Amino acid sequence: MKNKILLLLALCPFFAAAQSGWTRAPKGLFIKIDGSFLDATTYYNPNGESVTTSAFRQSSINLYGEYGFRERLTFIVQAPLLRFNSFETTSTVAGIGDLRLEAKYRLSGNTFPVSVSVAPEIPTGRANAYATNKQFPEDRINLPTGDGEFNVWTTLAASHSFGKCYASAFTAYNFRTKYEGKKFRDLYQFGAELGFNPWKPLWLNAKLRAQFSNGDSRHPELGFVRGDATTYTLLSAEAFYRIGSHWGVAATYLDGGDWIAPFQNIYIAPYFSVGVVYER
What's the pLDDT tens digit per position in 115-135? Predict the structure, then answer.
């Protein structure tokens, strides 16, 4: 069983792909480039109160890649190659997003793989990118393409395949640091994924992810753009169709609810992405 990916969150903190216990075979390669789009008018403030605003829009071209460096060891890269942010009332700002580099090590065999990974997230995105009001150009709002701070994700994941299906579960912790002297709250997640291979070239999967914060935001005036104390519950589904021996296409739909972790400090709306996959 090779791990599939599921793109999750198109908001300012860069989203993580699906987590599993499997690693790539040595010299194995997986690359996905996709385009995603979000148009949201519902904002949940740091207190969890729902507010309707003018539409916040974000579109991105995203890269996800895996390389099997050695037996049990896989290197992973994730990055928004280009991100566009705007409100319907403002101009659009653009830039690259924050780069995430991950080393993943499988602790057990392939029958019931368990893996641990460490993933520094480097603030390569534009920490400040000001969009101007279309009617009043002297008014500006900061819509950065990255959160401006260095942080590190650590993840423990386990998986198992049975027939044409597989299941994975994971837990993760994000050690956050500072931006311009402002210390952010750490975050932690847990989630699960189910996959099904009904037809040889077709994979279907669904994933549930919940994110929590270790406390309320110390800096609510920063709003959602830094992702401080952002919490959510998200449910997503993906269809992956293989074309030939190396290429494939994927489409993802994501939405959320307050079933486990409530929405706090986040814009939320149905999210879509389509992409091209190369696998060797």
Answer: 999 999 999 999 999 999 999
